[in-house]
Amino acid sequence: MDTNNKIADEELRAQVRSWLGENWTQAKAASLKQHQPLWGASDELKSWLAEVVSARWAAPRWPTEWFGRDLSNKQAKIIEAEFAAVRAPGTGQDRTNLWANTLLAGGTEVLKSKLIGPLLQGEVNMCLLYSEPNAGSDLAGIRTRADRQEDHYVVNGQKVWTSGAMTADYGMLIARTDWDVPKHQGISYFYCPMKQEGIEVRPLRQITNESQFNEVFITDALIPAENLLGNFNQGWQMLQTALAYERLIMGEGARGPRSGGNKKAKNVEVLIALAREAGVLEQPKLRQDIAQMIAYKKLNALNGARGKADISQGASSSLMSLGKLAMSRILHEEARLRTEILGPGSLFEGSDYSDAENANFLTFQAYLTSIGGGTDQIQRNIIGERVLGLPKEPEVDKKIPFREVRAS
Amino acid sequence: MDTNNKIADEELRAQVRSWLGENWTQAKAASLKQHQPLWGASDELKSWLAEVVSARWAAPRWPTEWFGRDLSNKQAKIIEAEFAAVRAPGTGQDRTNLWANTLLAGGTEVLKSKLIGPLLQGEVNMCLLYSEPNAGSDLAGIRTRADRQEDHYVVNGQKVWTSGAMTADYGMLIARTDWDVPKHQGISYFYCPMKQEGIEVRPLRQITNESQFNEVFITDALIPAENLLGNFNQGWQMLQTALAYERLIMGEGARGPRSGGNKKAKNVEVLIALAREAGVLEQPKLRQDIAQMIAYKKLNALNGARGKADISQGASSSLMSLGKLAMSRILHEEARLRTEILGPGSLFEGSDYSDAENANFLTFQAYLTSIGGGTDQIQRNIIGERVLGLPKEPEVDKKIPFREVRAS
Amino acid sequence: MNKLSLEERVALRDSVHQLLTNECDESAVRTTMETTSGFDPVLWNKLAEMGIVGLIINEDQGGAGVGPIELETVMEEVGAALLCSPLLASGVLAAELLNALQNDDVSSQLLPAIADGSCIATAALTGQSGCWTEGGVTVSAKGNTNEWLLSGSASYVLHGQNANVLLVAASTSDGLSMFVVEAEADGLSISGLPTFDHTLRLAEISFDKVAAERITTQRPVWDAVIQALDITLVALAGEQAGAAEHCLAATVDYAKTRIQFGRAIGSFQAIKHMAADLLLETESSISAARHAAACLADGTDDATEAVSLAAFACADTFVSTAATSVQMYGGIAFTWEHPAHLYLRRARADAQLFGSSSFYRERFIQQLEA
Amino acid sequence: MNKLSLEERVALRDSVHQLLTNECDESAVRTTMETTSGFDPVLWNKLAEMGIVGLIINEDQGGAGVGPIELETVMEEVGAALLCSPLLASGVLAAELLNALQNDDVSSQLLPAIADGSCIATAALTGQSGCWTEGGVTVSAKGNTNEWLLSGSASYVLHGQNANVLLVAASTSDGLSMFVVEAEADGLSISGLPTFDHTLRLAEISFDKVAAERITTQRPVWDAVIQALDITLVALAGEQAGAAEHCLAATVDYAKTRIQFGRAIGSFQAIKHMAADLLLETESSISAARHAAACLADGTDDATEAVSLAAFACADTFVSTAATSVQMYGGIAFTWEHPAHLYLRRARADAQLFGSSSFYRERFIQQLEA
After folding, report:
1. Which C residues in the span 24-83 are in contact with B, Cβ-Cβ below 8 Å?
2. At B181, phi and psi to the nearest 5?
3. Which of C151, C178, C152, C148 is nearest to C166 (CA)?
4. What confidence score (pLDDT) does residue A260 get?
5. D222-369: what fold?
6. Per-residue confidence at A320, pLDDT binned at 50, 70, 90?
7. Are B38 and B73 members of one domain?
8. CB–CB of C259 and A339 under 8 A?
9. pTM score
């Protein structure tokens, strides 16, 4: 078997290399390098992805009926390595495409047939419709409702902290479908069409003065019944599946330099350079603080590398859950240090004051890590409970009908 | 009325001054200055207190039937001022004598007649029998039991963190007297005789290598029925009264310099001197840290002074509840700084290394403030709930019979 | 200097509170901070009429004639309301600098107009380095008794773009002197700086042989500057303490009503303990600011030490309280519409206006060593 | 130097863990730490037989011939168990110093006896200042090729009172040299110092014209010392990381079983969040120690930087974890009988043994600047 596999590996490598050699032309590589729009794929990318999908390279771990090849993880990695070697995008979507993975895991045959191909080809833009003004840390407290009427659901409510909602074709939405059972048991999970009258998207102005997120107001919006993912009223379980994919993807992305820290990370040099430029690099207290901040970064990278080495493929690592908390401290501390280095120079904003702009932006943007995707406080609960095995707090609203749950 | 009072004030001042002139002789002052034993009053002190009590200066705010004069707080302060002017001890016990105040508040006539006089005269040594190995933060979780038998109670259990138990004649004890009601409702409060067979006192060796506290093992110890304070099964309320006296006394004692910080506190100079001696006072980071530490101390003293000015007599101040948390940080930080100043010199112990001894002792002793008398964590709950008015946590054991409460 | 009784002080505070509640709510602040001048002239006049602008100006110059204690009291309300105004620049820094220089002619000429709000004054004391010591001055003056010309530049000038009159520190061949410059003088160029705290106005000023009047004085000039900076620091400390207290109170109110997991979030220890720790900080900052004010008013030996303590304690407390409150609020405070970031911006600005916390911690320990 | 495979390393770790579980439980530690020598000769021999004492000594000198990675692994177990022994002094610092000096004669004379535990060696490298740089040496040597006499003093000598042989750094007219001194030599006076960490042994040594053998070497002597200190720091980092991890695990176990208010205290956010924060620290310290070991083993360019990082990260983590664990335990950890204070004492000692965290943070940033 070992021998068979080895032959298959080499055959596969030869196959993908030859395919790339034929199809990944210099012209395509050049056209894909530029003009990447912020939301959604460019036409050039879509056209390339269509080629990748039809050649069954996009999601090789998946079953053959869904554009895949039913390959092992190890062989899929061979394909990814070949694509990476020539910097061609499009493969590995069976790991990285949140939307398609979630749909494959829970979608109806109708919906999968309709959307999985387009999702892999970048033809469909997506967004997440989870958080609500009154359901942040407590996501199971959502009050957006979906009521079944004949062959569709009618949705009413408000979502917030949605990125990409302006251009999205569908949103992965959780809504309450039963108010008379405990909070986790009356939620369903949908692919909600965004281009319809009942959906109003408003940009949310952030403290950084950017608008990276939206509020989404939903009034009698319609979702076809076949857009339900997972079972009716079992949306919480479906959500956990989707969140697990998300964490896996984010974790890989956020882990910092791949090497354990042999190379000096670029932003390290930037901080020392900033202090040198400001003429304060020789201040002993600042040196200690900068050293400590760089240490936090390196240690986080080392934890990430160790976590990656420790865990078997696809499993979630306890070290990974620490990364978000670590980054939160790193970002807030980096913002503090940038401010201290600049002193009164940090008072300003605008393009003439790029150092101040960076320090001030980071001061605010750091909250996206310490609040967004679960506050540091929620994250400490998760680490305490799931990693260290400490008992949960008493949950006052876990077993009562949602109708009776206290709300703000 | 104002005029009447003024005459009475002056008369009173003259009276006490003349009495002190006659009775507070230089010989007595000299004999009381020396040989103050660690536990219990010296014979000289007892004899002086007996004079103070019989002249009704010991507790002037108290009713006349209990050695008092029924005086207003203002007039009692006059007496205290005169005693303080000649450094005579013994008055103001209606504010400062925890044992006598608690007994007066809740004792039976029999017990009061027997002990109030001796307590004021320093004839009786006392200790506190509250905490247990399994009831620390959660004092209402005590499991020492007192069972009524004819005209006395039979007590069994174990107490801990008791100071002065070796020499005590009585301990103020809480014990469970009803196991079938919720935890706060089945506790009673006693004056427990300590010199009896059923009481075994063992010194508790602390991490500082001192033995400031004891463990008390109680086996079939007897308490006469008339030694119950407050009502049967309402010991929790009685305890709150006693704790309020204790906080008042501790709060006055712990508040630091009376002036708002005009005078440089002595230990401030010690830290700077220590750093100078070690040749590290010019290190910029250390200077910042020492400055910050001294700042914490000064701010705590200023808070105390402001609290004292803000509150009306006898009331508890919100600033007072902050003092313990502040001291905890101050002591731990002072220990850290002493260690940093000494560097490797902090590795040693013993009389030849007094600077190291101080740094190491304080490192450990600081926990007496951050753990003893309620941990910092419990203190933050108290501040959050009682001062800021934040809601309490769900209390899982509050309403169930104590018998069913989960224990370690 | 007079001192108000406790009752009078409470009344003063109440009246300021009432005015600011009516005329300086969050929406007024948001409107004002986006105007060019960065202050509301109508509210400015009301403050002047109430005696707030001239609070520390002597009665014979049209002021209220009180001192640091009353000023600190008022500033706590100013901080809580995030008032946008040149009060600190004109009514405190410039006014006290004139008080300190003890030149009756110049004082009589300027202080009444400062007190009634018709003249906005400010002081230009440091250059690009933002170093608030004598060495930080980068304007120089040449001339004789009658004619002086200033050259060089000053920066971090509080409300410089709104000032009618500038008090400028400049080095001369005889050492440092203070000068009066009219905002319309030839050769003067005042550029507003784009501040991250939109409720703040700072300017950079360049002097190209600008005619100036020298303020003669018997005192060493930098001593007078320190006196003015000290009371300004106390006022700023009051603003910081009042603002921090407000931040905490607002956050605690939110934590009582925001429900997650079927409970008010303030019932969770994570939030409750953050609030308890912040209460220690905010109460300490109030103690520090008030103590410094009292020491300055009484002229105690350790007044400068107390001012240093207030400077860093209040600056650090306002920053940490405003920053922590954003975390406690969670997502809602990440939106522009929520006021939390306005306080955080102000806190970060206040912490740099007249030197960093490290600078004042070092000054503090130097005073303790002395 | 050989490297063990991952499986072999796990087996090594397991065998050390098993030995220490059997022979070095808390009660054994408490007994040993109150003896004069401060180590258990029986256990010492078992460690030597197992190859632990000679772990980094070459196979041809009787050692196991492995390197920093295996050493770090073992030291995590040593730290967790609070082992009292001269392992760090003899098997690491002295052994690596001999390795580094590359003098075959002296190595052949000493290393086999060090490896089999029959000879306890240590190094005397600094004086009263406790400054671990070349300038900290306060012993001087006079003599010629055949006869050298040492005078002066050394302090902070790890297990000096238990040593049979001392490696002494001394300044000569030609610069720094290393010398071998027998513990029984005339003129040598070794005084044990009373350490706050009872599991530690330190000595002060005075030299009054003590006859010594100079170790000739081709390398700059302080370079060899730095090589030896670096591996010692990695071993210490492993000890600290392992001990910190143990402290946290024990505290978390307690928090799961200690009931207050009808709930395990670990269900309260106050305790849970402290534990979560400590987990980040302890995992980071393990990463730091292992990474430094790997860099030393591979001789990467940034090895010294990685050692510095491990030195301060692991020292600080062990101190903060041990200190916080006392707070999490509450009253019970305030008693002598509870082991928490033993770890805190060790943590405080380890943090000072070869220079402070500040020293290594400064070294770290210097390396980053370079």
Report:
1. none
2. -120, 165
3. C178
4. 35
5. Butyryl-CoA Dehydrogenase, subunit A; domain 3 (1.20.140)
6. confident
7. yes
8. no
9. 0.94
